[in-house]
Amino acid sequence: MAFGFFINPGSSGHILILVKQLYIMIEDQIFCPACGTNTEHALIKTGQENLVRCEICGIVHSVQKERERLVTLKAIVNRDELSEPYIIKLPANDELHVGDELLIDDASKDVVMTQITSLETDRRVNSAIAEAVKTIWARATDEVPLKVSVYRNGQTHPLKIIVQGDEVFEVGEVKQIKGFKFGIVKIKLRGEGFADVAEAKDIVRIWGREI
């Protein structure tokens, strides 16, 4: 914390205003060139280099930002029952969780938006930091296969289409697919349960009745 003075001239004279500035204390100690050892520092300004102030001697100096360490990981992406391996780089300390969306950017292949389905370290886990992960298992969610069952004339007709993962479907909505015009009557979600409205990437199957 520091204090400064600002003089504001006015018609009735000079007004002295006390200005309080708050500095952020840095958790890790930093080497101070004046003290010759690691000391507590306060962060004054951020930029390409951080400007810091030693809490012992008061000297202000710059320090380089620590470069983010990357790790190379294998990702197995499932799309419509076909699996394809990718190689990606992620910050070592990134926390990964099953269910998270993850952009797979392999320089030798197309960029794919996915959802993490499993993480493999020494075993299968639900969460881990990137450097502890050996393989990421995921499913593509940018385009997804959608199973639709349409009831017509006493029979159920199974259909399968490819749609954008973020396309929304809603119970009561009227759709026309492969010559069938139907109203949606039920939506089953991945995992558990049913919903009245959901994005395609979260849907296992839609049931409809021809109209």
The CATH class of the largest domain, by name, is Mainly Beta
What percent of residues adopt helix (DSSP H or I)?
under 10%
- What does the oligomeric state look like here? single chain
Number of strands: 23
Estimated structural class: mainly beta
Number of helices: 0
| CATH structural architecture of the largest domain | Roll
Distance between the termini: 71 Å
- What's the domain count? 3
- Principal-axes shape call: elongated
Kindly estimate the percentage of residues that lie in beta strands according to DSSP. over 45%
What is the CATH topology assignment of the largest domain? SH3 type barrels
Largest sheet: 6 strands, mixed
Low-confidence stretches: 1-22
Average predicted confidence as pLDDT: 85
Gyration radius, in Å: 29 Å
Which series of helices and strands comes N to C?
Answer: EEEEEEEEEEEEEEEEEEEEEEE
Sequence-ordered SSE layout with sheet pairings:
Layout: E1 2-10, E2 13-21, E3 24-25, E4 30-32, E5 37-39, E6 41-45, E7 49-54, E8 60-64, E9 70-79, E10 82-91, E11 95-97, E12 101-104, E13 112-120, E14 124-125, E15 127-129, E16 135-140, E17 143-152, E18 155-164, E19 168-170, E20 174-177, E21 180-189, E22 197-199, E23 203-210
Parallel strand pairs: 9-16, 17-23
Antiparallel strand pairs: 1-2, 3-6, 4-5, 6-7, 7-8, 9-10, 11-15, 12-13, 13-14, 13-16, 17-18, 19-22, 20-21, 21-23
